[in-house]
């Protein structure tokens, strides 16, 4: 059974109907990150009820089915529920995925992981904190929230990872062959940061330093953008930015830092 609070009816949906644009394989970069992130996979593997909610999947549920398929490589018995606030977008379930109407209250469910992509981007900046808090309050113990944004083809992505209490990290991921400079990702920053990319703000300092390190790595361009990016990340670490180092070779260029590095002043 779905893990709703005993003795309580599901509350009415909280939120606003958004555009609902979607596309096949649009969220592949964040999905790849999820199935290899140690914290996410640990929470999925140890959860007594491994339920995942895809919040605001849009006009078509392609990315919800893709999320289920990819996360089941980590935990085969995982259950996925797609929630949409627009009742016209709620479709019949299949392949072990079901769909229901719901918003930031999560339809009374208690998932271990919530993915909300391209949802809060369409809200005002001052609505983010309340939306985060509402979702966090409905997570299962040890649960996680991914609030992210990407472009229409999924070539540029950014997301914040949160636990029940606070934001943990910011991750930027992009196609190495279609993005000229790391700061080009700024147009897809999550809502909590997109208006903060101005001088004096930490996110602006990070992106500026990243471009500078990218320029210093220009001699490696003939070896390809992935090699150049690895050296760029090493330069950032040498300059005091705690950029996460990944043990495996990444298909995407990925920049991940603790939230404290970019939190708005």
From TrEMBL:
Name of the protein in question: SAM-dependent methyltransferase
Annotated GO biological process: methylation
InterPro entries for this protein: SAM-dependent_MTases_sf (IPR029063)
Region (Disordered): 1-21
GO terms assigned for molecular function: methyltransferase activity
Organism whose genome encodes this protein: Nocardia mangyaensis
Keywords for this protein: Methyltransferase, Transferase
